[in-house]
Design goal:
heterodimer; A: 6-stranded mixed beta sheet; 4-stranded parallel beta sheet; B: 8-stranded parallel barrel; 13 helices
Chain lengths: 393, 254
């Protein structure tokens, strides 16, 4: 079984480029060039250099001793939270800003939900001196004021998405509309492993530095490149894609994807796409998505703004469908408890997205000798308000 | 012969109007179609509303959101249209995004369209190659014409390819934009209109996006077989209601 994208842009039956003709030239230009550009020695050099000197890579792989003791297994945390801007998102925005420059683009647009991808995009635009417009749902702007302020400090223009449900999916629609209206000078930096081909593959490749590092770091620490499991939380799925990438075709490595169950799978307030979603088309790709029987896309719910996306990247849809990955869904309350637990046991306050992944230890028992590598995708600073409200701290 | 092909043979410039089914009121669909025909419109695009219409601007998005709130569904639209051919004879096209059709089942959707007397479909997010490889045979089996879009950025080579797959008309998007974003045509657009006109495509072209009044309609139809009006009409029914459709059409054709 092949888990990578094929020549036509599909992962099994998922993926493709379901885009209006207005977007064809932009997406086609990217499709024809992205692999070529990424293979250029100059590009690689600049990308690696920035990841090292600007982002602070390699991010540590940390053996979480107390957490491991508590759950009687061996847990390693891949510290993406220590990256510049506080999450894995910047791996991709660094890659894409360099890509945009190679393609001669002068104007950058992005969508953002919680604001993490928006901040990561605004950051690289400041770094390169490019104009930056970030679309963000009106409701999210109100919920994520500190990140809105960060983007503005970095020189970006934050445009509220006023249509539909005024959250991430609508911000994505607005960004796509902007691209339709500005087809020549603009590059759209999609923040997750979604969108029309080649985006899911391009984003996955930029994020694959995560598993590339895990391999040598784990070998250094344990003598073995392969853990028994790799675990990551999934919204659209970019940190997960990067965490799995170099292990997709290693059959001895189990892959675990953790979705947000919200208030519970059957509560009507959930974002567990692999369970609640059906095959369909969203934002330019065929994948699993949450929708009405009539094919209208529904609004997901999770306490974590980074996981409440109604779809999942096409690679992950393929991993779910083929059974290559085990999907587990975690409720708001289990995630919050796990976030607090990591803070107290390891002195690391995780992003609420990441807390979902951490909560699996309560639901799944690992063997004492299992090596479990988990992507600690982001830090919890942005979520302090949420933690404070929830725990009445 | 399909009603669209027959209409395209008429020796006149065609006025085609888009409206969102289920808007402003859930039960306006049939009366809007009848009024448009009565007032001299040549062809109608019935918009099947979608939650995330990413090729559309705010006017059509808002009308779609409202139509869905009103309770519009694929099944309900088909029910509303069940007797449409008893009173209406001009070509009818359903315009919508691919996901609702995909969920209904593409073949079931096409079959239903044929039963109701729908002549064609416009699906902005169904790319021409996917259509060609996976769905063309189904569309043809049910006698449906699928209409593709081209834009000022579409290469000549791709326009020729789209022309070769098309068997009705080509929907020429007037500028790089979502619907309802433009007002009036400048030199850039007329140069593009001229370029396409000179290509001698086998399919006639109908221009859409940015047609909002008699002036832009006349301008567009100097270069093309007809023009499509969407957002301007949706705005009209938003502001003036559905009783004044004659005003809108008369102004357009005057």
């Amino acid at each position: 079984m092949n888990y990578n994208v094929n020549k036509k842009g599909y992962y099994g039956e998922f993926g493709g480029a379901f885009i209006p003709e207005m977007l064809y030239p932009n997406v086609e230009e990217l499709r024809q060039n992205y692999l070529k550009v990424m293979a250029e020695p100059e590009f690689k050099k600049e990308f690696d250099q920035l990841l090292k000197d600007y982002v602070g890579r390699p991010s540590p792989l940390y053996f979480a001793k107390r957490l491991s003791e508590k759950y009687n297994t061996k847990i390693y945390l891949k510290r993406e939270d220590l990256n510049h801007t506080g999450a894995h998102k910047i791996n991709n925005t660094i890659g894409q800003i360099l890509m945009a420059q190679r393609l001669g683009k002068t104007r950058i647009i992005a969508e953002t939900g919680a604001g993490q991808h928006g901040v990561a995009t605004a950051t690289v635009c400041a770094l390169m001196g490019l104009e930056c417009i970030v679309y963000m749902g009106e409701i999210d702007i109100a919920r994520q004021a500190p990140n809105v302020a960060r983007m503005k400090m970095l020189g970006a223009t934050v445009v509220p998405a006023l249509s539909g449900s005024r959250t991430l999916k609508d911000a994505t629609n607005e960004a796509i509309r902007d691209w339709i209206n500005n087809p020549v000078n603009t590059h759209y930096i999609i923040g997750s492993a979604i969108g029309p081909h080649p985006y899911p593959d391009m984003v996955t490749r930029f994020q694959s530095v995560i598993s590339e590092e895990i391999k040598w770091q784990l070998k250094e620490q344990t003598g073995k490149e392969n853990p028994d499991y790799v675990v990551a939380c999934i919204g659209g799925g970019s940190n997960a894609a990067g965490t799995y990438y170099h292990y997709l075709h290693e059959p001895d490595v189990g892959i675990i994807a953790v979705e947000a169950a919200g208030l519970g799978i059957d509560s009507g307030e959930s974002a567990a796409t692999s369970v609640l979603g059906k095959e369909g088309i969203i934002h330019g790709c065929k994948t699993l998505l949450m929708q009405t029987p009539d094919g209208q896309i529904t609004e997901p719910y999770s306490i974590s703004a980074g996981l409440d996306y109604p779809g999942v990247g096409p690679m992950h849809a393929h991993l779910a469908k083929t059974g290559r990955a085990e999907f587990i869904s975690i409720t708001d309350s289990d995630a919050m408890d796990a976030g607090l637990e990591l803070s107290k046991l390891e002195g690391i306050i995780p992003a609420i997205e990441t807390s979902h992944a951490l909560a699996i230890f309560k639901h799944k028992t690992f063997k004492p000798n299992d090596v479990v590598v988990m992507s600690l995708s982001g830090r919890g600073d942005k979520d302090l308000e949420n933690y404070i409200d929830y725990f009445k701290i | 012969m399909n009603r669209i092909n027959k209409k395209l043979q008429e020796n006149k410039k065609l006025l085609s109007i888009y409206f969102t089914a289920g808007y402003p009121d859930i039960n306006d669909t049939v009366s809007i179609i009848q009024d448009l025909e009565k007032n001299g419109v040549d062809m109608i695009e019935i918009g099947l509303p979608f939650s995330d219409p990413l090729a559309d601007g705010p006017t059509i998005q808002d009308s779609s959101t409202q139509a869905l709130k009103n309770g519009m569904t694929t099944e309900l639209l088909f029910n509303q249209l069940k007797d449409i051919r008893k009173s209406v004879s001009i070509p009818l096209i359903i315009m919508g995004y691919f996901n609702p059709m995909f969920q209904y089942g593409v073949e079931a959707f096409c079959k239903k369209c044929q039963e109701l007397g729908i002549d064609g479909l416009i699906i902005p997010d169904l790319p021409v190659d996917v259509y060609h490889n996976e769905y063309q045979a189904i569309f043809e089996k049910y006698g449906l014409i699928n209409v593709f879009l081209i834009t000022p950025q579409t290469s000549d080579e791709r326009i020729r390819y789209i022309d070769s797959i098309s068997n009705g008309f080509i929907y020429m998007v007037s500028s790089a934009s979502t619907t309802g974003a433009q007002s009036g045509f400048g030199e850039e657009q007329t140069a593009y209109f001229e370029r396409i006109a000179k290509m001698n495509l086998k399919n006639p072209q109908i221009i859409g996006f940015g047609i909002s009044n008699n002036e832009t309609f006349t301008q567009a139809t100097q270069y093309a077989k007809g023009a499509i009006i969407g957002s301007a009409f949706v705005k009209h029914v938003t502001n003036k209601g559905v009783k004044n459709i004659d005003d809108f059409v008369n102004n357009m054709l005057s």
